[in-house]
Amino acid sequence: MAAALILGAILAPWLYQVGKGLAEVFDDKKGNGPVNFIAKAAGRADFPKFFDRSLMLSAFVLLFPLCSWLRLGKTPGCFRDTPWSLSLPDNVTVRDCGQPLRKNPDGWWQFGTGFFVAAGLLLLSGWLMLQAGCFIWKDALYSSRGVPNKFPMAIDWIAGMKKVLPGALTVTLIEEVLFRGILLGIFLRAMRPAPAIAMLSFLFAFVHFLEPPHGAVVPDPEAANAGFVLLGQIFGRFADPMSMVSRFSILAMVGVVLAYARYRTSSLWLPIGLHLGWAFGMGMFKVATWPVMGLPEAARWLIGMSLLEGLLPLSVIGVTGMLVHAMTRTREPIADYRS
């Protein structure tokens, strides 16, 4: 993780210069479709976006030496023959080969149920926040508490769906394969389920918490130390108790629910459905609403600037987790009293 952060901070200004240069070259001439798409996206992006992409690139590059160190792709040996045996105490380790993914005959049903449960509960909580005056419809003149809308605009639901769904699906598939497919599989080969889920969820929250804070500004994005300047602003959020409670705790809870769903079903269908439901619901709510500014500080502990900030959304994730537990509960066989 530390190596990925350092490499990402080093690469970010170089990636920024390449992207902006590409945008200038294709500003007044036509290329093929994908190149034009990348050039236009690079022209619109700011430095934090380039930092985020350089961090992902660094993690992908460093994944290969990590897999080599973990001896993946080779026949699993006993636990004491793995790199984990150097650092884990005996009371949290396992002696088997973990829990491999299996073919799930109920996969599509679990995917659809997870999607509608996650998106439905999240959007229901968003509707309640709208009624409480914490958010306002973009096409409304006033919030439910009479606060005027300073930026009224029409809501284009179809365009919003076309924008949100592809991105949500892409991110969901990548993260579920990486976190719940590969990493949780590795953790379950070395640890008991509870510490494996806890460690992976902390890692999941930590990685997402590394996103640049809203409104982050770097004075000179082309400077060699620009990535490290932004990295300092990111780590500054760990000293903010509200960010830790309202954001980090929700990310960790999301990680626990997704990892638990993968562990209970031994497949990725249910976590993919849940993850996509949350990403889609949050994106569509953002398309249609503005957060209301000027709320009391105490209210911000309960409700943040999005559907994934604050103690109220945390409770929604917790309820979703309880439903996942109920959905995946092992059914007892029906007793045959005739015998």
UniProtKB/TrEMBL annotation:
Question: Where do the CAAX prenyl protease 2/Lysostaphin resistance protein A-like domain residues begin and end?
Answer: 165-279
Alphabetical GO biological process terms: CAAX-box protein maturation; proteolysis
Gene Ontology MF terms in the entry: endopeptidase activity; metallopeptidase activity
Source organism of the structure: Luteolibacter luteus
Protein's name in the database = CPBP family intramembrane metalloprotease
The keyword Nucleotide-binding is assigned to this record: no
Pfam families from the UniProt entry = Rce1-like
Keywords assigned? Hydrolase, Membrane, Metalloprotease, Protease, Transmembrane, Transmembrane helix
Show the taxonomic lineage: Bacteria, Pseudomonadati, Verrucomicrobiota, Verrucomicrobiia, Verrucomicrobiales
Give the transmembrane ranges. Answer: 54-72, 108-130, 194-210, 244-261, 268-289, 301-324
